[in-house]
Amino acid sequence: MNKKITVTDTILRDAHQSLIATRMRLEDMLPICAKLDQVGYWSLEVWGGATFDSCVRFLKEDPWERLRQLKAALPNTRLQMLLRGQNLLGYRHYSDDVVKAFVAKAAVNGIDVFRIFDAMNDVRNLRVAIEAVKAAGKHAQGTISYTTSPVHTTAAFVELAQRMQEKGVDSIAIKDMAGLLTPYSTAELVQALKGAVDLPIFVHSHDTAGMGAMCQLKAIEAGADHIDTAISSFAWGTSHPGTESMVAALRGTPFDTGLDLELLQEIGLYFYNIRKKYHQFESEFTGVDTRVQVNQVPGGMMSNLANQLKEQGALHRINEVFEEIPRVREDLGFPPLVTPTSQIVGTQAVFNVLAGERYKTITNEVKLYLQGRYGRAPGQVNEKLRFQAIGSEEVIDVRPADLLKPEMARLREEIGSLAKSEEDVLTYAMFPDIGRKFLEERAAGALKPEVLLPQPDAAGRPAAAQEGVPTEFVVDVHGESYRIDITGVSVKTDGKRHFYVAIDGMPEEVVFEPLNAFVGGGSGGRKQARGPGDVSTTMPGNIVDVLVKEGDVVKAGQAVLITEAMKMETEVQAPIAGKVVAIHVVKGDRVNPGEVLIEIES
Questions:
Q1: Angstrom distance (rounded) from CA 462 to CA 467
Q2: What pTM does this model have?
């Protein structure tokens, strides 16, 4: 039987999300698009997932403009995105009118294929997105978020696929975001799905455990129609099996993809050089690691988790976090680890490890999860933890979005004239704080992407050690941003090393004192918490909101602040009952553990 296997390449989305923390810029995509467009892919995944967030937060690119330019540069290839069902591209459920508006605009701007998933595999959370995609005349792909646990069986996944077929999807994708599939479990699942639904089956598997290509081959033999791959220079490890390798493996067989191997190799060489540009975002945790079969951490989550721990100064504790993640996941009823539940579980695991006590601090997202605000948990949650998190508050059993009022009118009013289009309103809807900041910076002509460090030289020396090559930093001081270029030229006198620094073009000589000679007092010079009424945090982060004012009387355990760390929000509670006598923070402040943020007197 001849059965041509079709291919989606993830190079412009999931491949760089998994390996370089979603940092590839549009300027490095466009030059190769003409050749990508000649390959004959079934589709190219270019948008969704974390790319929208990364564009706005780090790259200072308009994600909608990125999509429009890619559509113009790839006229002969379907463009595909990853959509988180009712969560769209954010970390909460949006009202139905936001979901419909977002899908409609994504379709108009260039998306042809919507891979729609729900982190809980709760089909109720897929319905409106599927309907919106079909209304736009585009391809709706229903997605199984694959995982393993006592409650995730082949029969359960087949039932899920059947329910999605009833909702009108055009195909079914097995989304193995963590690389948990094994070759024979893949064959079993694909065979069962082909026997139960009359739809094309797509296989998306990360190579984290080193089995991705074997799983895809067994899937093809079992009847799968389509595979996801990544160009070799961004393949394997926490990314996907290499495109060239799979094309070569299937060439001359009944499953021949028909893709031009020589052209793919040329594209691979282009991205080989591009990857070097982003060396600062490479993580040591993106290679083959069979521990994923135990800790279940997906590729994109692994590289981002490593980056986030590095920012907290706690990268050396990542293995403790990996060990804690399965325990948190079990407490929450075995949710699949895919956005946003991967962030919810991963961040709570980090809090548990760094605080030295499990659930000493519980994130707001975990509380919402335990209330049913993300959907129905696949398994039984830890009821003791649920009571600790939400007390006697009601647990909902309806589709979470049924409780949400329409939001688009309010969002338009809130963002006002900063929004020049409906797309801008939707950017604000996805990420209110960073979206507003992006639109403000755009209006002021002040959009500046994060600095890319120069590559190490031929001798392997870091950029800062290369004579005449500056290392660039952007430093925020009291709300002002400064770009600082430090050259590697230095002279040692009086036991001190002198570097020449250019601050916004003005040369200055600075002296670096020996390390540890200065002991900082924390952000804003805040004193360290010692008294029983001193409010502090256990994690570095940002102040999202101050819930009290001086003179307020508070109860012990009352929320007085909301902080954000690793994209998750946490309530900071009053340690004692009493009167608020001093507040040392405002919204937007950066804070560190142990600093006094609020003072309460009993």
A1: 11
A2: 0.81
